[in-house]
């Protein structure tokens, strides 16, 4: 027996009359309208059987009036939605199941009246709160009753959605892989370094799905323990770019923390990061609209810190491991780029220094020569040509002994022995021989030359012509001795003058001494006027007689 004979009979009779599900058995059911007909009993039994089948069907079925009230609710509907018949009958399906229609309800009713059927996907909420997606088929039975048959397709739809999401992820992964590959290609090609830095920052933002990103280079010799310099950024305000242009280890940003540990630092919410509380960095994060940040160190293949690459989000965020793995690929490329540019800059600086050194060497007045450990000349500057007389073409490839007198060959052997020991020879004064055979006095400084591995491979010599300096020193010594001799003679003369001077009074003695000293000074002037060649004897005698006459006059008085 059907549990709800009244409703079942209504539905079964309507189905038997108009047909609803395409069933041959249902279409053959036909009720007689004449009361008491011989066939009435058999028809009623068929109707009751059909009602039982509908009620017990596994397929969720329910009937509702066009005005909304549910009139029939079978076991399949109870199994799917969780509502018992007494909970469902009398309520509207759209309120009971919180139905989401793909079209307006008024349009659905219009189609049912005009076309007497509708099919499509609906979303329902079950009694326990979970959502199901059904493939729904509706049939208008009679003038105001709709039979709705639903099939649960939630698993299929979820599978389709998962497949679509998987395809989307694959497409995204492919796009990211292409992006990383394109950057790899661009890094190989010679392009603007600044442009490449910006492309790496843009790619980091795409890979990490962030609103802002930045890249920095590490300068180890700035500050107390090195500083980070901003190379490129995305989404920073001018104030933020200026604020974070240089970051030291004493800063409170994630970059400083990563610099101290050389490990990735993730701050999923800057508002709940203890190290940022009350700092200017937190204020700048707020001003820039940054709520979460991560910083990944850029390490060379030797493990040296090259810089940082960071991404920033406008909402609290925890990056996925998949995103971080792709960021690590980008970080490897960024580190290689910075290291390559540093190497190129170092080479350029080395070339500049080499050119400067070569220019200094070439323009030096001193002879600057290099030789190998066998004493063979490797380089020869213009100063060497001026001092020794040999051109570079004549000297290079020749033994250094071409400028060493034979009696001083032992000096060269001693110099090479000390150079092999790594010793330096400073200001060694010796004699060398010019191309024309003349000798020249030089001051020699010799230093070891090492290769990149630190092995001594030769020596550099700086020879300075000290001939004139030695001549000047000798002249100074002669003049010093002459001055000393004359000073002693002068003191002896003064002493003799004092001893020879006589007077009865101290004042007279004073005048006598002054007169004799003045006479000596006058004689000295006579010699100076003749450039110390000599003086006329008569002039000297006049000076002396004048002195004697003065003394006699003083005595007479």
Which characteristics define this entry?
4 domains; 557 residues; disordered N terminus; Beta-Lactamase; six-stranded antiparallel beta sheet
Measured between the Cα atoms of the first and last residue, the distance is: 183 Å
Give the CATH H-level superfamily of the largest domain: GAF domain
- Strand fraction equals 15-25%
Give the domain tally. 4
What's the story with the biggest beta sheet? 6 strands, antiparallel
Q: Can you tell me the CATH class of the largest domain?
A: Alpha Beta
CATH architecture of the largest domain: 2-Layer Sandwich
**Number of E-type strands:** 16
Mean pLDDT: 81
Taking strands numbered 1, 2, ... along the chain, how are they ordered across the largest sheet? 8-7-6-11-10-9
Taken from the alpha-carbon principal axes, the silhouette is elongated
**Which residues sit in consecutive blocks of at least 5 with pLDDT less than 50?**
1-36
Helix content: 40-55%
Structural class, judged by helices and strands?
Answer: alpha+beta
CATH topology of the largest domain: Beta-Lactamase
Q: How many helices in DSSP terms?
A: 19
Radius of gyration: 57 Å
């Amino acid at each position: 027996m059907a549990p709800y004979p009244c409703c079942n009979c209504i539905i079964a009779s309507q189905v038997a009359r108009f047909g609803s599900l395409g069933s041959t058995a249902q279409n053959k059911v036909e009720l007689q309208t004449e009361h008491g007909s011989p066939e009435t009993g058999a028809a009623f039994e068929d109707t009751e059987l059909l009602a039982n089948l509908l009620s017990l069907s596994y397929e969720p079925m329910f009937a509702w009036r066009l005005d909304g009230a549910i009139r029939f609710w079978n076991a399949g509907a109870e199994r799917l939605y969780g509502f018992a018949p007494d909970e469902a009958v009398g309520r509207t399906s759209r309120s009971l199941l919180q139905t989401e229609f793909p079209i307006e309800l008024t349009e659905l009713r219009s189609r049912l009246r005009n076309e007497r059927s509708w099919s499509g996907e609906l979303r329902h909420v079950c009694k326990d709160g979970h959502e199901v997606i059904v493939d729904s088929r509706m049939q208008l039975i009679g003038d105001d009753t709709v039979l709705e048959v639903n099939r649960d397709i939630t698993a299929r739809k979820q599978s389709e959605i998962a497949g679509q999401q998987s395809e989307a992820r694959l497409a995204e992964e492919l796009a990211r892989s292409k992006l990383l590959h394109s950057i790899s290609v661009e890094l190989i090609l010679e392009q603007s370094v600044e442009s490449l830095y910006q492309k790496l920052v843009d790619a980091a933002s795409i890979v990490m799905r962030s609103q802002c990103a930045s890249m920095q280079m590490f300068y180890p010799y700035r500050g107390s323990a090195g500083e980070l310099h901003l190379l490129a950024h995305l989404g920073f305000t001018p104030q933020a770019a200026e604020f974070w242009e240089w970051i030291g280890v004493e800063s409170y940003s994630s970059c400083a923390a990563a610099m101290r540990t050389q490990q990735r630092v993730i701050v999923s919410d800057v508002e709940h990061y203890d190290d940022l509380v009350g700092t200017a960095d937190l204020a700048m994060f707020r001003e820039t609209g940054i709520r979460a940040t991560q910083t990944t160190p850029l390490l060379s293949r030797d493990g040296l810190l090259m810089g940082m690459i960071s991404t920033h989000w406008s909402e609290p965020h925890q990056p996925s491991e998949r995103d971080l793995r792709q960021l690590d690929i980008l970080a490897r490329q960024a580190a290689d780029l910075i290291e390559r540019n540093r190497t190129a800059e170092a080479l350029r600086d080395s070339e500049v220094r080499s050119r400067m050194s070569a220019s200094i060497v070439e323009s030096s007045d001193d002879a600057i020569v290099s030789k190998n450990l066998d004493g063979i000349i490797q380089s020869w500057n213009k100063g060497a040509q001026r001092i020794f007389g040999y051109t570079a073409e004549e000297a290079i490839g020749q033994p250094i002994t071409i400028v060493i007198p034979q009696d001083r060959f032992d000096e060269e052997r001693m110099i090479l022995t000390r150079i092999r020991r790594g010793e330096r020879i400073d200001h060694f004064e010796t004699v060398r021989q010019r191309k024309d055979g003349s000798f020249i006095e030089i001051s020699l400084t010799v230093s070891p030359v090492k290769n990149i591995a630190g092995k001594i491979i030769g020596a550099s010599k700086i020879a300075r012509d000290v001939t004139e300096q030695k001549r000047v020193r000798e002249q100074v010594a002669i003049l010093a001795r002459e001055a000393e001799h004359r000073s002693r003679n002068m003191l002896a003369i003064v002493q003799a003058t004092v001893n020879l001077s006589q007077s009865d009074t101290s004042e007279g003695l004073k005048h006598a001494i002054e007169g004799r000293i003045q006479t000596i000074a006058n004689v000295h002037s006579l010699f100076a006027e003749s450039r110390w060649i000599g003086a006329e004897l008569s002039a000297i005698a006049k000076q002396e007689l004048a002195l004697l006459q003065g003394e006699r006059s003083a005595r007479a008085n």
